Amino acid sequence: MTDLLGALGLIFVVSAVLLVVAHQFSIPVVPVYIITGLMLPPLVGQDLTLELAQWGIAFLVFVFGVNVEPTRLEAVTGDSEFVAAESVLILGGFGYGAALLLGLDALNAIYFSIAAALSSSLVGQDLIRREIYINLLYGRLVQSVHFIQDLIAIVLILVLSASVFTPDAIAAALGYGVLLLLIAVVVRVYLFGTLIRLSGGSDELLILTAIGMLIGFIIGSELAGVSIAIGAFAAGLAITKEFTQNLALLNGLDSLESFFSAIFFVVLGSLVTVPTLDVVIVAATLIVLIAILKPIVTIYLLLYRGYETRTACLTSFSLDQVSEFSLIIAIQAFILGRIAPDIFQAIILASAVTMITSTATKQFEEELYRFISRYPIFTSAHEKMAEQSNVESDLSDHIVLIGYGKLGTQVGKVCHELEEDLVVVDHDPDQLAWARREHSNYVFGDAMDPETWQRAGIDSCRLIYSTVPDRRLSERLLEIETEADVIVRADRTDEALDLFEQGAAYVNVPDFLASERLTDTVRDLLAGERTTETLRDDGTASLRDTQVDLQEAGPWNR
Fold first, then answer.
1. Among 37, 103, 149, 481, which residue has the fewest nearby CB atoms (within 10 Å)?
2. Residue 5 counted as domain residue
3. CATH of the domain at 535
4. Which residues form the RCK N-terminal domain (predicted)?
5. What is the dihedral of CA 221, 182, 67, 226, to 10 degrees?
6. CATH number, domain with residue 185
């Protein structure tokens, strides 16, 4: 116990020092943690190190499970199922073939191919946390693909962790795993809401309830003889964060995630040893499959499903790393003596490298997208995009509205009431479907793409209104050579001031506008210009009108 506490203390002390330096240069935390692990000497024995890695993964998988909200993923489920399944089959096939060419036996080739096929939901979604928060299309695609791949990974864990490879043992493991997931669904649908009500709004009870459910499901997985990661994943699915007064739970989970992220990624770095030539060759092959072939395959699959090039590229750049579930499979196989030590070390090395390179592809995603989009083979979706667009050929002096979410719906309604010609631009198929019902002119495409601008008639419009709080998009729109006024959206006042300086006619900062309106309301109330009764009546009426508008606009806008 003393050795373990000392190891954890050293992990956090060294990590904290390096994080201070990294923060000054805006370096992502994952590479810092892994490099910390590479720098530290072996802290504890290998058995305890592997145990720490598994527990770190389990707690992070739990947080991922909590963050999965199926209702937000419904719109892209069909596409993500296709992309996840096809990419696993294609990369798994290439990986298995490459492993055999390297001289691996069948079982080790399977472990190699699994590492090549599955992507890390922990790293990938940490990199696009903001995109998921503001509900961007490719953020939902990445989250949904990861969720489907994690379900595939759970099946593989149950099969490969069976005590013996016999039909009865595999069937028993699968049965226990499915049972845990079914219990999680039942708890989520029928029990968790009751637990929230019984907590009476107590922050402490909410956090203890979540931790208690995690421990309960982990105990259940231990009793069933399956991986604790499966129990942790089921516990996460049993909890929904979509309820009022959820701030304490979210803050508690963030702290939990930060704590175990440090443990897991530092331990992952510490597992990397000085590689032999054979390990380097196997790891390099795995890295090529993951960092180069996997994004190419993902891009083609998304283009085939009708998505435009930028969405396909940005989605693929969040799937180019080894999955934590692949690490669990490799660790369990190593403990059971089923995987060759060199293959295990190659998977560990490839994991560390790809989790670092993945942060680099995220940082330079726009540059990589522009490089890839130069090649005609990656622009095959434009024909399908044109088929889903409709703009009158003689349209001019119109308004181009980018994004048909909550704000876009309201702006579209105002334009309709004023009988203004409007072109809606969105790359979310379902949001565009709702725009198609309300408006006659619409473009399916990415607002960053010049071809989308051409279809929307930006050269002849008089106003461009972007409802998307994306600084890169806002700055790109302000670079367009057009006489039209440009209105954009920002989350922060300092960002808004920069956009004003770059030529924006107006910058919508929702928090700032809301605070101004609240200040005016308080001033009117204190000055006696409004009574509490009229204030309450006006507020209630406004909320009811907004609720009706959002219900008419579709479930993803609520």
1. 481
2. no
3. 3.40.50.720
4. 399-507
5. 20
6. 1.20.1530.20
